[in-house]
Amino acid sequence: MTLSNKIVVVMGGGGLLGSEFVRACAEEGARVVSADVKESSFLPEGVAFIKCDATSEEEVKALADKVREQFGRADVVINATYPKTANYGKKFEDGDLDEMLENTTMHIKTCMTVVRGFLPLLKGQKSGSLVFLGSIYGVAAPRLEIYEGTNMTTPAEYAAAKGGTLSLVRYFAALLGSHNVRVNAVSPGGIMGNYPQSFIDAYSRRLFLGKGLLSPKHISGAVVFLASDASEMMTGQNLLIDGGWTL
To answer: What is the pLDDT along the chain (247 residues), one digit of tens a residue?
Structure first.
């Protein structure tokens, strides 16, 4: 499970999950690059920051070039980006359709820009591991009743984006396998946040393991596993980390 001396790029490294992946990979001995639209207020010692908008193919290509110049290779690229518009998250019947489609497109686009941006480097070195973030709502129908009594919902565009992400993981695994590049996903359940207790209680009743929502640390172990040589024969797979929520 060691990442000693591996070069790991975390796209969206300043986010809730991305920052945890940066920390976990650095702790396991990796040389980590955190890429985001703005620098995190806290970076572990030794972690490099490179500004990058993952929705821009040109910026991701420039990032890959900088990684090659500074480190010579990229052993692991983790896509933890989560782009969204200002009005993201409305109920299906209330949201603007064009904006809903924009949110779906932005999410899917980052999967494509990351692969296209790093493709020349990965093919040239004939190795690498790509890790994407799916979701329980990419594999299972939403339980809309758990949102009753709150102003929350799970948007249709989120299900479309995460389902599309998992399909692309399989596609990219087929595309890149001959170059010895692995592509996998981790699909978390609900992550801790400032949510009403009624929602947390309703969500928890579906769990077989644990109580309440997940911590980002619950996800990072699976990401480190997929980044490491311990998973060297895994590709096109999706690891569900959800306390049994989808069972």
So the answer is: 899 999 999 999 999 999 999 999 999 999 999 999 998 878 999 999 999 999 999 999 999 999 999 999 999 999 999 999 999 999 999 999 999 999 999 999 999 999 999 999 999 999 999 999 999 999 999 999 999 999 999 999 999 999 999 999 999 999 999 999 999 999 999 999 999 999 999 999 999 999 899 999 999 999 999 999 999 999 999 999 999 999 9
Q: Which helix (H) or strand (E) is 165 found in, with range?
A: helix 156-176
Residue ranges making up the domain that contains 26: 7-241
Looking at the domain assignment, is residue 2 inside a domain? no
Number of domains in the chain: 1
pTM: 0.96
Asked if residue 107 belongs to a domain, the reply is: yes
Nearest CA-CA partner of 7 in 60, 68, 52, 58? 68
Helices 156-176 and 97-125: angle between axes, nearest 10 degrees: 20
